[in-house]
Each structure stands twice: as C-alpha cells, then as structure tokens.
Amino acid sequence: MRGTDPAEYLAVHLYNDLRWLLCAATEWRVQHTINPDDRIKGQHIKLYAMDSAALHARSLLEFFTNNGSNRGRMQSLYGIQSITSQRYPGNWVRPLNTHLMHAQDRSEGQQLTSFDGNSKHDLNRMPVDFGHESVRLWRVFIQELQNRGNPLAALAQSKLDEAITQSARVVTNEINAKHGIGPITW
C-alpha cells in the first residue's frame, strides 16, 4: 500500500468501520429489545442496523485476520502479520461473505457460534457478537503496536475509546433514552 499513511488509515478508515460497527450493533440491540419479534410493521431499523454492523465487522475482521481483500494490509502498514480469531474465519466467514454480498437462497441459515463460544445464533442475531470480536481484535492490535514501540498504539487506543463513546450515545440519544437500555460494555 504505497503512499498510504498508516496514521491516517487508522484514524479515518479503520476508525470509521469500528465506530459504525459499534453504533450499529448498539442500535440493533436497542431495536431488538423494544421490538424483538418485529411486531411493529414497517419498522426496519433493526435490519438496517444488523446489515451495517455485519458489513463493518467484515471489513475489520478481514483486516485483523489478514483475509479477503485486506490480505497483507496490516503487515504493509503496521508490520503485524495477522491476529488470530476463533470466529473469523471460523464459522463466521462464509455467512458474512455469502449472505451479505450475494443474492441467494437464505431460507436455511447456518447457526454461528457466539463471541464467547457459549451459544449458537442466526446471522441476524449476531451484531453485538461481531462488535465484541472486533473490539477484542482491536485491543490485540493496540498491544501489537505497543510491543513494536509504534507510537500509533496511542492513536489506536484513542480511536477505540471514541468509538465506544459514540456507541454509548446511541442509547442516550433523545429517541432511545426513554427505553432505559444501558450502553454495551465493549
């Protein structure tokens, strides 16, 4: 990635995916809590949030694990080979690629392992799990930067903190605050 500034890539592009993933996952949780069975007809915010969370998670998961279109990007920008995830590629990679990127029969969904490995869920119930795994990988990324003495570790920590703050605002905004749902502990 010649010509790409590592600090700018982190502060703009990676942060963009992290922030919108955490905000979308939080919004999905709010909507799932207040409308678990989609009883409010014509209200599709939960679906929009789920799609957004999954797409942003896919970008981050590919970046951190050195898969897909991000192969080699973390190495070329930050000198880090890849970060191991039991979930991605694991049983998350195929559904995140096929169900989000291709028009196909989705009548038989695959059950995905939760972030903590304790349960299985349909893809449409995974936004918070995707967020947790992405934050876990982001923290490993920070640690790897620190281990290499890379000053961008502080920027990575700051962007994680910002994204968490932004996601907390989703539950405290004037529309969602009335539901009394607390922020997710990332």
What is the C-alpha radius of gyration, as a whole number of Å? 17 Å
How many structural domains can be distinguished in the coordinates? 1
Low-pLDDT residue intervals, each spanning 5 or more residues: none
Shape: globular
According to DSSP, the number of beta strands is: 2
Q: Widest sheet: strand order?
A: 1-2
How far is the N terminus from the C terminus? 31 Å
Helix/strand order, N-terminal first: HHHHEEHH
Enumerate how many helices there are, as a single number.
6
Average pLDDT, to the nearest integer? 91
Q: Work out the helicity level.
A: 55-70%
- Alpha-beta content class: mainly alpha
Residue fraction in strands: under 5%
Report the sheet with the most strands, covering strand number, pairing sense and barrel closure: 2 strands, antiparallel
Characterization of this structure:
It is a single chain. The chain is globular, with a radius of gyration of 17 Å. The chain has one domain (6-179). A two-stranded antiparallel sheet has the order 1-2. The protein is mainly alpha-helical. The protein has helices at residues 6-34, 45-65, 73-78, 93-101, 127-147, 152-172, and strands at residues 112-113, 120-121.
